[in-house]
Write a structure and sequence with these properties.
Blueprint: E1 2-8, E2 12-17, E3 26-33, E4 47-51, H1 68-87, E5 91-92, E6 98-100, H2 101-105, H3 115-118, E7 122-124, E8 130-133, H4 138-147, E9 155-164, E10 176-185, H5 190-207, E11 211-217, H6 218-227, H7 235-242, H8 245-259, H9 264-274, H10 280-291, H11 295-306, E12 313-315, E13 329-335, E14 346-350, H12 354-358, E15 367-373, H13 374-382, E16 396-400, H14 406-418, E17 423-425, H15 432-441, E18 446-450, H16 452-457, E19 460-464, E20 470-473, H17 475-485
Parallel strand pairs: 5-9, 11-12, 16-17, 16-18
Antiparallel strand pairs: 1-2, 2-3, 3-4, 6-8, 7-8, 9-10, 10-15, 11-13, 13-14, 14-15, 18-19, 19-20
Helix pairs in contact: 1-5, 5-11, 8-9
C-alpha cells in the first residue's frame, strides 16, 4: 500500500510503500499533480508519479535476467539436448522445486557433509516443516522412483528445469541455474555406463563444444582409502576434500585433511595414488600394480572398452564428485581449453544404493545418470566469437499497405502458421519503410507485402530480406520458398 506524507514545497511528496505481508517499507519521492493543501489548488484529480530509486531496481545476487537474444539461445541449447536425450530413448518427467530437508540431508541424499548441502537454500513452511529448494535432480528422481514401484524397468528419464544453490558466484556458477539430466534405473551392465558417456559425447558434438570427459570409479577411491587405512566413517569427509584437488591443489587438500585429523604418512601415501599421468591404459595398469584385482578398475575398463570413441575420455583417479551417494563410475565434463571457463559443463555417475536406502532397504537398485549445466554451457557458447545470434524467433513479417486488407492479412498469417512458419504482423498500415526497417532490425528473413495489386491478383509480394529481391507470387509458392530456405 502507499501512504503519502505531507507535501514538501507544494510539488513533491514523500511516499512509503509497504507490502501486504509486513515486508520492509521503502521511501521515495513522488511528483504530486493536483494535491490540495498548503495553498496549492488542483486543476484536475490527483495523480502520483513515483520515481523509484535505481538502487531499488536490483536483482538478487547470483541470478540473471535474459532478454530475447539470450533466451532464444538457451532454448536452442535445451532443445538440442532434448533431441539427443530422446534419440537415446529417454522420456521426460517433472518433480517439485521444493523438497523436504530430510530427503536431501540423509546419507542417501547429498549428505550433510557435502559442499552442496552447505549451499542449500533452507526454510520452513507454516507447519514448521524444514524444506529446501532442490539443488539437483538426482535426489528428487530417486524419491520419484521409490514412490512409484510400478514403474517398468529399466526406466530411462530426462528432466530439464531450475535448481538453486546459495554458493559463491563466478562465471558459470550462479545461485539459480538450470540443469538438464538423464538417468536410468534398473540396469547395472557396463553397457549403460558407456551409453551415458556416448550420449554426452553426442550432446557436446551437436552443441559445437570441444570437451574432455573425466572419468573415475568410487570403488577405486574407496580401495585407495582402505589401502591407507582411512576409517569408513571418515571416508565421505575425506572424499569431499579430495574433490577440491583441481581447485586448491594437493597442498590445499593435504592441509584440509590434516585439519580433519589424518596423519602425514597417510596423506603422503594418498598423493602417490591420486597424482597420475599418461594414457588411460597406463594409469589403469599402474593402479592395478598398487591395488591388485579391483572391482572398480574392472568396471572402468569395461566401460572404456565399449566406447566407439574414447579419444576425449580421460581417467582421473583423483576425480571424486563430493556427493555421498555415488557408488561406481563417476563423470565430469570440462572444456578442453579452460583458460576462460574452468567450471564443469556436466557431471554425474552411478548411485546404486540411493533408491533402496530411501525405501529403508539394503537392496541395491542400480541407477546412473549425468547432469548438463545450462548456465555453463550457455557461457561457454558465448565465448565463441563465431556464433550467429538470433534476435527473434519470427521467420516471416507481414505488411499491408491498406487497413481495409487486415482480414486478408490475418488469413495469410493463419495459413503461414498452419505450415509451421513463425509469423508476425505489422499493424502500422501504409508504413512500408518502417515495416521493412523493423524486419531488418530483428533479422527476420522474409517479408510478405500485401497491397492493392496483390489483392486484385490474389497474390503476395515476397521479399528476401537477405538479398533484397522481391517477387509477386501465389501464397502457396511463397510458403514453399520460405520453408525451403528455413
Amino acid at each position: 500500500m502507499c501512504k503519502r506524507q505531507p507535501a514538501e514545497a507544494g510539488f513533491f511528496s514523500k511516499f512509503t510503500i509497504q507490502n501486504d505481508y509486513g515486508g520492509r517499507s521503502s521511501v521515495g519521492r513522488a511528483l504530486v499533480c493536483g494535491t490540495s493543501g498548503r495553498g496549492f489548488k488542483p486543476r484536475r484529480s490527483p495523480h502520483y508519479y513515483f520515481y523509484m530509486k535505481t538502487k531499488d531496481l536490483q536483482r538478487a545476487k547470483g541470478v540473471r535476467d535474459f532478454g530475447p537474444v539470450e533466451k532464444i539461445q538457451r532454448n536452442e541449447i535445451t532443445q538440442t539436448l532434448q533431441q539427443v536425450f530422446e534419440s537415446f530413448g529417454y522420456n521426460p518427467i517433472e518433480t517439485p522445486i521444493i523438497e523436504r530437508y530430510e530427503l536431501f540431508g540423509s546419507k542417501y541424499g547429498i549428505g550433510n557433509e557435502s559442499e552442496a548441502m552447505q549451499e542449500t537454500f533452507k526454510f520452513k513452511d507454516q507447519g514448521k516443516r524444514d524444506l529446501v529448494l532442490r539443488t539437483e535432480f538426482t535426489v528428487p528422481f530417486s524419491r520419484f522412483v521409490a514412490m512409484n514401484p510400478q514403474l517398468k524397468k529399466p526406466f530411462k528419464r530426462y528432466q530439464i528445469g531450475q535448481v538453486f544453490r546459495d554458493g559463491p558466484i563466478k562465471l558459470g556458477r550462479y545461485r539459480e541455474f538450470w540443469q538438464c539430466d538423464v538417468d536410468v534405473v534398473g540396469l547395472s551392465a557396463a553397457g549403460i555406463d558407456a551409453e551415458i558417456v556416448q550420449l554426452t559425447q553426442e550432446a557436446f558434438d551437436k552443441l559445437g563444444l570441444d570437451v574432455i570427459i573425466k572419468i573415475n570409479n568410487r570403488k577405486i577411491l574407496n580401495a585407495i582409502l582402505n589401502k591407507i587405512n582411512i576409517k569408513e566413517e571418515s571416508r565421505d569427509s575425506v572424499i569431499v576434500s579430495i574433490d577440491k584437488l583441481d581447485k586448491i591443489g594437493f597442498v590445499g587438500v593435504a592441509k584440509e585433511l590434516e585439519e580433519k585429523g589424518l596423519d602425514k604418512s597417510s596423506i603422503k601415501n594418498l598423493e602417490k595414488y591420486l597424482i597420475a599421468s599418461g594414457k588411460n591404459e597406463d594409469i589403469i595398469a599402474e593402479l592395478e600394480s598398487l591395488l591388485g584385482d579391483q572391482e572398480g578398475l574392472e568396471e572402468l575398463k569395461q566401460t572404456l572398452n565399449l566406447l566407439p570413441n574414447s579419444a576425449n575420455v580421460e581417467f582421473l583417479p583423483s576425480l571424486a564428485r563430493g556427493l555421498a551417494y555415488y557408488t561406481g563410475n563417476i563423470f565430469e565434463v570440462f572444456l578442453k581449453d579452460q583458460t576462460k571457463l574452468s567450471s564443469s559443463l556436466a557431471a554425474g555417475g552411478r548411485y546404486d544404493q540411493m533408491i533402496g536406502g530411501l525405501l529403508g532397504s539394503k537392496q541395491e537398485i542400480p541407477a546412473i545418470g549425468i547432469s548438463f549445466g545450462l548456465e555453463t554451457i550457455f557461457d561457454a557458447m558465448n565465448l565463441q566469437s563465431d556464433r550467429n545470434e538470433k534476435i527473434s524467433t519470427v521467420e516471416t513479417y507481414l505488411i499491408s499497405m491498406d487497413k481495409k486488407n487486415a482480414g486478408e492479412l490475418f488469413d495469410i498469417a493463419k495459413e503461414l502458421r498452419n505450415n509451421d512458419i513463425k509469423t508476425d504482423i505489422c499493424y502500422k498500415y501504409k508504413k512500408l519503410k518502417q515495416g521493412l526497417e523493423f524486419a531488418n532490425d530483428y533479422n527476420i528473413g522474409w517479408v510478405i507485402i500485401l497491397g492493392e495489386d496483390e489483392v486484385k491478383k490474389n497474390k503476395v509480394t515476397l521479399r528476401n530480406m537477405e538479398t533484397g529481391k522481391q517477387e509477386m507470387i501465389t501464397l502457396k509458392k511463397a510458403i514453399s520458398r520460405i520453408k525451403k530456405k528455413s
